[in-house]
Amino acid sequence: MKKEIKKDHADLAEAFIRDEERVDWHDGALWFIREKRDRASKQIPEWEALREAASAVKSNVISNLHAYLLQFEENLIKNGVIVHWADNAEEHNEIVYSILKAKGLNQLVKSKSMLTEECQLNEYLHERGIEVINSDLGEYIQQIDNEPPSHIVLPCIHKRKEEIGELFHTHLGTEKGLSDPTLLTRVARKHLRNVFITRRAALTGVNFAVAETGEYVVCTNEGNADMGAHLSDVQIASMGLEKIVPQKKHLGIFLRLLARSATGQPITIYSSHYRKPRPGQEMHLILVNAGRTNQLKRPDFRDSLKCIKCGACMNTCPVYRKSGGLSYHNTISGPIGAILAPNLDMKKHADLPYASTLCGSCSNVCPVKINIHEQLYKWRQVIVKEGYATQTKALGMKAMAWTFSSPATFTTAGKAGRWFLHNIPFVVNNKFNPWYKQRDMPEGPKESFSEWYEREEKKKEQQHT
Amino acid sequence: MNTREKILQEVLDSQPDTTPLPDISLFKGGEDDPVQKYMDVFKTIGGEVFLVEDLAAVKTSVHERFDLSKRVVTTVPELSDPFELLSGTVEPRLYDDVELAVIRAHFSVAENGAVWLTDQLMGHRIIPYICQHLAVLVKAESIVPTLHEAYERIGIGDYGFGGFIGGPSKTADIEQALVLGAHGPLSMTVYILKQPFPLSK
Questions:
Q1: Residue B25 lies in a domain
Q2: Is B11 domain-assigned?
Q3: Taking CB atoms and an 8 Å limit, are B174 and A161 in contact across chains?
Q4: Max Cα–Cα distance, chain B, nearest Å
Q5: How far apart, in whole angstroms, are the C-alpha atoms of residue A366 and residue A313?
Q6: Which end of chain B, N or C, is less surrounded by CB atoms within 10 Å?
């Protein structure tokens, strides 16, 4: 069960960075993926035009979502798919439960789906006696360790292979000390194959949903979505409203961008287009709102709905790389998580837009050109205005506003600051000053520019007279 | 108002003024020889690829490269002797012991190494995913440069299920170490046939 989280990003990051060797490794592993993304994108001369087109297609989707949803629904029904609508996590979970219950099933195999993580589906079903197994290897590892994923593409990127070996030893009975990635993967393959063969119900996420044809595309490298879906009697797909693309030909743009941005691969190994149930099979699709219409209402933030969940913004983010995904205490971490989360619960996620240097690297790699760093900056303003900033931040800003309000207070404050830094530095170099953590305060100049200028001018005057 | 109507009303009330769809007709592949490009890319993603004359050459290669004492299935009638010809009506779980599946693809894509195949060519939807090793036959002339030409070719399509498959299944979830053979096939071989042979419609 997930624990009640009270610690903010800074607290959780502090715990993560205590292990310096791990931080360096984590930082390097993610930067390596960012470099692979760069190499892959540079092989496509029209890369920037593709990003532009993808962003424009998604703008069109956002501006015409009502009509596309109706068209998509109509085609799903024509294709023999049973359509459900859920306004929130609770409704979504109830729908999944009722589908399973109607069939008398108490087991479900699930491929990667951030939406169902967001809805805490596994916990909900568990409480009702239904066992869920996550079949993506990284998600499976996170599940047996009772932790949420730390990255949307690489769920256990923060774990060392020795830790995974230890988990497999406990849960799958492997030899103690086994840590070879190939051997561990083979063990999981064998174990999960038995799961696929014996489950009657499978749930997948959705990467893209085509309004024109009513089909949906699921992308995996492992083949786990297909193993679950094609072996199931009941297939369920859960998708957020924003996953729509208007026409089939638009998939060409998004599939060219997705894997190259995510991992530097030319395409995800499996891009599966599900349209009709196979004979004898039941296929359900759940359209989930869970805050999407709220985000759609906010002109400054609605473009975040363009996200195709590639994870490129995480891999490039200096804060994410050094603080780890779990420090964001939200299903979707990193820069994109920090602009999506406050929409869902501004109070709980008020810290996340501050988990950024605003360097803008996220916006530069985003395949659908979301202005992530600008939205982070805008969220900070909304959060302060709505009164959700922490007291230290609110006080600091008030003090700053007062200091800058007149030249006299500014000059006095500057003098005081320099005097403290020179004469009694421990007043600022202590643990009560958040800026002092992991930093030394600067020595501080002896005088300000104004003081120097005044002195020089006086000197000149004296020379002239 | 039920949930569906509530959500749709909220969407209608919140969506901004319509912006136009971009013209994407200019996106297309370059001048590269698609067959050569395909072979180069497919090797880099962990696949094996052979340019062969005809089906007889495929048969010879399959005999050399795979353990045929185990279960081998195919959808290609010309290969049904000695392999088992697939029937789409069988319960999918019974394919768990398939060692090798030899199936046709409609075409493949040079820029990313993927083959496109629909349930009409799979025999059963589960086949290309559940087999331990996958071998796919493609006509040389059918290789398209990019996904844009691919979707042009697929059009609306008439299938219940279709998929791009771009190599053996893989994972790098454990410390970013690449492992081939996650849940799907451990290996994927593509045979590009120079001579035309009876493919799909």
A1: no
A2: no
A3: yes
A4: 65
A5: 6
A6: C
Read off the pTM: 0.91
- Using DSSP, state whether B15 is helix, strand or coil: coil
Q: Give start and end residues of each alpha helix (H) in A232-353.
A: 250-262, 292-297, 312-316, 318-323, 334-344
CATH number for the domain that contains residue B92:
3.40.50.10420
A-chain CB neighbours of B11 within 8 Å are 65-66, 69, 241, 293, 296
- Does residue B17 sit at the A interface (CB-CB below 8 Å)? yes
Residue A98 carries which side chain, given as an amino acid letter?
S
Whether chain A has a CB inside 8 Å of the CB on B40: the answer is no
| Residue B77 belongs to some domain of the structure | yes
Predicted-complex ipTM score: 0.97
Q: Would the CB atoms of A181 and B169 count as touching at under 8 Å? A: no
- The domain in which residue B71 lies consists of 32-193
Which ranges in chain A are annotated with CATH 3.40.50.10420? Answer: 19-294
Q: Is A369 exposed, middle or buried (0-12, 13-18, 19+ CB in 10 A)?
A: buried
Q: Do B174 and A184 touch (CB under 8 A)?
A: yes
Q: Report yes or no on B159 lying in a domain.
A: yes
* Superfamily, domain A19-294: NagB/RpiA/CoA transferase-like (3.40.50.10420)
Specify the number of domains making up chain B.
1
Q: Crossing angle of helices A161-172/A137-144, nearest 10°?
A: 70
Q: Are A66 and B17 an interchain contact pair (Cβ–Cβ within 8 Å)?
A: no
